[in-house]
Write a structure and sequence with these properties.
Layout lengths: L1 H4 L2 H6 L5 H13 L6 H13 L5 H9 L7 H12 L5 H13 L10 H11 L2 H12 L7 H14 L2 H10 L5 H13 L3 H10 L5 H13 L3 H10 L5 H13 L3 H13 L6 H14 L2 H13 L9 H11 L3 H10 L6 H13 L3 H13 L6 H14 L2 H13 L7 H13 L3 H10 L6 H14 L2 H14 L4 H13 L3 H14 L7 E6 L2 E6 L2 E2 L5 H17 L15 H8 L3 H12 L6 E5 L5 H13 L4 E5 L2 E6 L2 E2 L6
Parallel strand pairs: 4-5
Antiparallel strand pairs: 1-2, 1-4, 2-3, 5-6, 6-7
The chain binds one DNA strand through helix 6, helix 8, helix 10, helix 12 and helix 14.
DNA sequence: CTAGGGTTAG
């Protein structure tokens, strides 16, 4: 026996890295008659199915099928191997076969956790309950591994109460039991129950804390995530990434980036997920320099663009920073093993730059290469069409989505269709979508109608859409603002005043407009009404006044309907001059070299007045301006803008 | 054998 276990052929198995090498070892085993020994065979099968060598699992089953009396270890290796795949039905079949040919005391129980895992993945409720029943009749009930697997299985089923019942009755709970139960509650959105358990548990480890940070972040409770983060003495990359992505998801990209820098300064090396989450923060901020640095870091550390979401995140980052050529270059350089996310990011990236045709071309290329699109691909495509005014194409893709690709449209897809018709001025069709869709219209649906009414001057439709939107989100200032814009456009100043009063009474705060730009490696931020970097402010205000008077000679008329205060026109005009994007433009005219474009990132939608202002600046001052508001780009050149959304 | 982090849309 010792001779076999130290046999050189067996020990070389551990070093094997590919199917080809595996075949040679297997051949050697046949030649030396080693395959007649159960132990050697079980090592071979265990290695094939558990090592992660591609094709290994199939190889293991073919070796397995030639064994006459497999023992429980051989069964286990294969059951475990299949339970780690996405369709582990084979695990259940093998388990049933094992029970029929082996007796219960021969090591059958080692397979139970894997079988439970398979049941969970397959949502095989009945089979899962049968295994549960077997467990109850045996001593396995006392094994925390088995109990933990059962908790996990019921969580996979979505049966959170059943999971809790198993948890409560487990005789030997360990940290993993608590962590699994907490993860289950977080997945089910039961944040209160999760934090209750977190507070109660006898000893927490890294995993428990990291899970809570992530959970708090996902439900919008950044302060609670921070509290856990601060109390931890040992933090690993996962801890930092969880906190960074909590900031990203709650729209605090600057905090996310600061935290990432702190992590670097402590000497921690970011891995794939850490880089992906901070790239999303950088995209939000438009800090292309940081993005380029990370891109170089990825190349230097030989992190594959096709591994995980690195490629998609880089494409997204470059697109949102205005560097669509770099995005395209990254996309092309991932020629083999391109992820669906890479395609999706490329399509949306082109779309936010107003390159609708190019975005649709990418989709055509995808179809040609037989890449299966997913529902996000269609969200990208439909929003491409709606922003590009391609109504017929949009309708075509919406239909092919469920006819050709069997993807059931979700409410967001209907939202895109509402937007598609609305932007094109087909309000009737847009309202028709709302009436016929199998969902109750949500906030985004009504906001799409509201913006369309604003754009095309439908006061009554706009009013009722605004009331619905306000009903659904009473604290969201944007619906109030849009409605009052509609009234202002129609000259109904009494109604404008009513809206303002309503906002004041309900304590709805308008989000301050903020523009930022990168000049000489430094970020400058401008807030409505005041410039943060006050040493420049006198100069900036003087420049705005100069530009305005020069533009007026070219026909610029300040659009006073954009100011919602009921004050004298003169006061309105000076308020208009304090809009953050005008300050940024003035600053750019002073400090940016004439040959370089002026890059601006704005947090909210640009108003009509500023949009018109920029068009004229691009012509009169012969400057190229690139502005991103929320996630759309406006390229201004020679009096024209790439977007067709303003009139 | 069981537990934790990531992109694309809006």
């Amino acid at each position: 026996m010792t001779a076999i276990s130290t046999n050189p052929v067996v020990s070389v198995l551990d070093k094997c890295k590919s199917l080809c090498e595996l075949r040679q070892i297997h051949a050697q085993m046949i030649k030396t008659n080693l395959l007649n020994h159960q132990f050697t065979v079980s090592r071979l099968i265990a290695f094939c199915s558990l090592s992660g060598v591609s094709g290994g699992l199939d190889y293991a089953s073919s070796v397995f099928s030639r064994i006459q009396h497999p023992n429980s270890f051989i069964f286990f290796a294969l059951i475990k191997g299949f339970s780690d795949t996405s369709n582990p039905v084979e695990s259940l079949i093998l388990y049933a076969r094992m029970l029929s040919c082996l007796n219960y005391s021969s090591g059958v129980e080692f397979s139970i956790p894997s079988v439970l895992k398979a049941c969970g993945k397959l949502l095989a409720f009945d089979e899962g309950r049968q295994v549960h029943g077997q467990v109850l009749k045996t001593h396995l009930w006392f094994d925390p591994f088995v109990g933990n697997s059962m908790v996990r299985m019921y969580i996979d089923f979505g049966e959170i109460e059943l999971a809790r019942r198993v948890f409560d009755r487990m005789p030997n709970r360990d940290v993993v039991s608590w962590n699994s139960m907490i993860a289950g509650y977080l997945k089910a959105g039961e944040i209160e129950l999760a934090s209750e358990l977190f507070d109660e548990m006898p000893e927490r480890d890294l995993v428990s804390c990291n899970a809570m940070i992530d959970g708090y972040g996902k439900c919008g409770r950044c302060e609670l995530a921070e509290k856990v983060f601060e109390t931890m003495s040992d933090k690993d990359v996962v801890t930092w990434t969880s906190m960074i992505s909590a900031y990203v998801q709650n729209r605090c990209p600057m905090k996310a980036l600061d935290l990432f820098r702190e992590m670097l300064s402590l000497g921690l090396r970011p891995d794939g997920p850490a880089i992906v989450s901070v790239l999303s923060a950088i995209a939000d901020l438009g800090f292309v320099e940081e993005g380029k640095w990370l891109h170089a870091y990825v190349s230097m550390n030989k992190i594959e663009l096709s591994s995980g979401f690195i490629g998609s995140a880089l494409i997204d980052m470059y697109s949102k920073c205005g560097y669509i050529e770099n995005a395209y270059h990254v996309f092309r350089s991932i020629s083999h093993r391109r992820n669906i996310g890479d395609w999706n990011s490329m399509i949306s990236g082109l779309a936010i730059h107003g390159l609708a045709r190019e975005a649709l071309d990418i989709f055509v290329e995808m179809e040609r290469m037989d890449i299966e699109p997913n529902e996000i691909t269609f969200l990208g495509l439909l929003s491409t069409c709606s922003h590009g005014g391609l109504v017929e194409e949009g309708q075509f893709y919406f239909e092919s989505m469920h006819e050709k690709y069997k993807i059931v449209p979700r409410i967001q897809h209907y939202g895109c269709m509402i937007d598609l018709f609305g932007r094109a001025g087909r309000l009737e069709d847009a309202l028709g979508v709302i009436q016929n869709m199998p969902f109750e219209a949500d906030l985004l649906a009504w906001k799409a109608i509201l913006s369309a009414s604003m754009k095309h001057g439908h006061i009554e439709i706009g009013k009722s859409a605004a009331l619905r939107a306000i009903e659904l989100a009473p604290d969201d200032s944007s619906s109030y603002v849009l409605l009052s814009n509609i009234y202002a456009k129609a000259g109904r100043w009494d109604d404008v005043a009513k809206i303002r009063l309503m906002m004041r009474q309900r304590g709805v705060k308008k989000i301050a407009g903020c523009s930022s730009m990168l000049v000489n490696g430094k970020v400058h931020e401008f807030l409505l009404g005041k410039e943060l970097d006050s040493s420049y402010s006198g100069q900036v205000l003087a420049k705005i006044a100069e530009v305005v008077s020069r533009l007026k000679l070219q026909g610029y008329e300040p659009d006073l309907t954009q100011v919602l205060l009921d004050i004298e026109d003169e006061g309105k005009e000076s308020l208009l001059n304090l809009h953050s994007e005008k300050m940024a433009i003035a600053f750019g005219l002073i400090h940016i070299n004439k040959s370089a474009p002026i890059h601006i990132v704005k947090n909210l939608r640009v108003c009509c007045d500023c949009h018109c202002f920029m068009k004229l600046v691009s012509k009169v001052y012969n400057r190229q301006i690139i502005m991103r508001d929320q996630n759309r780009f406006h390229h201004f050149e020679n009096g024209c803008c790439s977007c067709n959304e303003y009139w």
